[in-house]
């Protein structure tokens, strides 16, 4: 098909003339001046003649902020829009030029094809991105990434603008005169449309509990994480590729059984017995509650989770159970525990369970409210467990190293750290102590030469149940999302959940490759919020972080306590937090960020009972 290219703000039309010979390209070259003014520029008349002879359109008096007015509806879908060295003219400063760009990008959104690109060439330093060498102060630049984000565009690529490679090209227009200007170090910025903001309509989800299908309201913060199907058969998502490759490697050393399908999403226990603050409690949709106590017990078994809350009441007496409640599974361990308790496994066979799990967590890098867990469980004879752990580890190491060779060619350091050698940051894994035994080791992966790197999993060992005293159950729980980030060079876990098609296109048919971001230098917005705490109450920081995730649609990348102040005399406490908003995959403009800040302020006052200062 013929590619339609729009050129704006042409000075002497030399850039357009250089493009007009390209095959299968229809060029529409425009400038802001009238035909008389433009033709007076050196070499312009010749370029215009050449353009018209080659079948290109030349249009004068085109305002780049009102493109819709210049092109009829059928003629609007441009595949590329070029604007080289935009400028308001004369001695216009950075603020005026930012406004020009803002109007231009909003106008582009109305005439650009869905998959089209916008190319903006700027002089060295103007853009204000780290690609500029040297880089200007942000306030003294054109802030092009933030300006474009306001109109829904992300910076997909940036490379040098090589004027000398464009045949016959001569820049002109310095301070609105027919004079050239310095294009050394100039950069071409390529923008594409970001995905549309997610709409936060409530979502309900169905899951199988025993013989019953129940539906429940998905917690708002997880709306885009439920039922994404990344591990399904037809998925080419990196987490599935890694799971399949690990399984294939393990199956060469052990007989393997996959039991991933239809594991219930919901677990079920007494709020008293399941005392993790990082659990997402769930309300079943109306009319979904189990009909009788007997049904409820049936469901508990079906949810494979009766192991979490014993049927004794809070006071420890049999027969007066506190009401059990449902929550989203924070781990696959209870499923494995239930399989073992039922004796539904054969010693020496590796059971592989996998699926998404959900936990409330603070906003810190690598801490994810949802991730894909792969759980490998093996029952072995007592006394052989250590050699089995070593076999498992060697197998995982071999697979990981061959995958890493394929993506970046470097070597991974994969090590076992003893359970005692880690601090609190591993509470994610430690929260489920007591299921499948004590944690023996943490599995750490880093790129050499910087061990020990990130903890991507834990290895446990537990004695078998009463009739299987001679067996030891060895299990390895792996975070597939963290492995995908390490292997593919993805720095932000949120990218794994993006709806942007540019992501999966980089992994055709599940091939693992080094990831190249399609949203470079995304703008970030900092907001300080301070508030008085209710008298005598502790502040639930985890609830604050979860609220920030929810209100911003996972756009908060950092929350830091700046100040903790106690008023003399009254003893009232005030906290001040610095909250940073930034998207990894879509356009986040300053207006949208300001709205998020307002929503967050309202929400903390409403839900956390604090008083804003």
TrEMBL record:
Pfam family of the protein (one): BMT5-like
GO MF term list: ATP binding; phenylalanine-tRNA ligase activity; rRNA (uridine-N3-)-methyltransferase activity
Please list the coiled coil stretches: none
Q: Which GO terms describe its biological process?
A: rRNA base methylation; translation
- Record-level GO cellular component terms: mitochondrial matrix
| E.C. numbers | 6.1.1.20
Protein name in UniProt = phenylalanine--tRNA ligase
Which species is listed as the source?
Loxia curvirostra
**What is this organism's lineage?**
Eukaryota, Metazoa, Chordata, Craniata, Vertebrata
Q: Which gene encodes it?
A: Fdxacb1
């Amino acid at each position: 098909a013929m590619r339609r290219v729009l050129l704006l703000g042409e000075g002497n039309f030399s850039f357009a003339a250089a493009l007009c010979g390209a095959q299968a390209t229809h060029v529409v070259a425009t400038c802001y001046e009238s035909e008389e003014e433009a033709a007076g520029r050196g070499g312009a008349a010749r370029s215009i003649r050449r353009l018209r002879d080659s079948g290109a359109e030349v249009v004068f008096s085109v305002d780049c902020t009102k493109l819709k007015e210049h092109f009829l509806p059928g003629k609007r879908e441009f595949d590329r829009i070029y604007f080289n060295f935009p400028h308001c003219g004369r001695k216009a400063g950075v603020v005026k030029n930012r406004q020009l760009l803002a109007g231009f990008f909003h106008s582009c959104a109305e005439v650009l094809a869905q998959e089209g690109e916008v190319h903006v060439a700027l002089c060295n330093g103007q853009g204000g991105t780290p690609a500029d060498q040297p880089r200007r102060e942000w306030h003294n630049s054109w802030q092009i990434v933030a300006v474009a984000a306001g109109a829904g565009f992300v910076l997909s690529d940036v490379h040098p603008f090589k004027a000398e490679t464009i045949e016959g090209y001569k820049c002109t227009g310095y301070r609105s005169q027919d004079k050239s200007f310095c294009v050394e170090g100039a950069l071409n910025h390529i923008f594409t449309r970001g995905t549309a903001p997610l709409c936060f309509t409530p979502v309900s989800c169905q899951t199988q509990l025993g013989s019953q299908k129940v539906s429940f309201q998905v917690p708002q913060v997880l709306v885009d994480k439920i039922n994404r199907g990344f591990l399904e058969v037809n998925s080419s998502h990196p987490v599935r590729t890694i799971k399949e490759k690990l399984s294939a490697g393990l199956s060469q050393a052990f007989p393997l059984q996959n039991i991933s399908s239809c594991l219930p999403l919901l677990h079920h226990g007494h709020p008293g017995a399941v005392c993790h603050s990082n659990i997402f409690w769930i309300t079943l949709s109306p009319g979904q509650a189990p009909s009788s106590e007997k049904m409820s017990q049936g469901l508990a078994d079906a949810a494979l989770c009766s192991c979490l809350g014993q049927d004794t009441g809070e006071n420890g007496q049999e027969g007066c159970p506190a009401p059990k409640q449902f929550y989203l599974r924070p781990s696959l361990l209870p499923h494995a525990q239930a399989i073992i308790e039922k004796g539904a496994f054969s010693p020496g066979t590796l059971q592989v369970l996998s699926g998404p799990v959900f936990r409330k967590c603070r906003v810190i890098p690598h801490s994810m409210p949802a991730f894909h867990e792969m759980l490998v469980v093996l029952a072995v004879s007592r006394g052989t467990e250590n050699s089995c752990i070593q076999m498992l580890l060697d197998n995982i190491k071999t697979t990981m190293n061959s995958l890493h060779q394929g993506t970046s060619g470097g070597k991974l350091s994969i090590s076992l750290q003893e359970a005692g050698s880690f601090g609190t940051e591993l509470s994610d894994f430690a929260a489920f102590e007591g299921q499948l035994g004590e944690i023996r080791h943490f599995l750490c992966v880093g790129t050499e030469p910087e061990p020990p790197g990130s903890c991507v999993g834990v290895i446990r060992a537990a004695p078998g149940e009463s009739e299987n005293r001679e067996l030891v159950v060895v299990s390895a729980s792996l975070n597939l999302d963290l492995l995908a980030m390490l292997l593919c060079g993805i720095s932000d876990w949120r990218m794994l959940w993006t709806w942007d098609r540019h992501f999966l296109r980089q992994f055709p048919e599940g091939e693992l490759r080094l990831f190249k971001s399609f949203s470079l230098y995304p703008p970030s917005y900092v907001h300080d919020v301070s508030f008085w705490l209710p008298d005598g109450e502790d502040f639930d920081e985890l609830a604050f972080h979860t609220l920030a995730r929810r209100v911003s649609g996972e756009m908060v990348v950092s929350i830091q306590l700046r100040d903790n102040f106690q008023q003399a005399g009254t003893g009232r406490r005030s906290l001040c937090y610095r909250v940073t908003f930034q998207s990894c995959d879509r356009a986040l403009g300053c207006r949208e960020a300001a709205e998020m800040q307002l929503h967050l302020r309202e929400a903390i006052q409403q839900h956390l009972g604090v008083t804003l200062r």
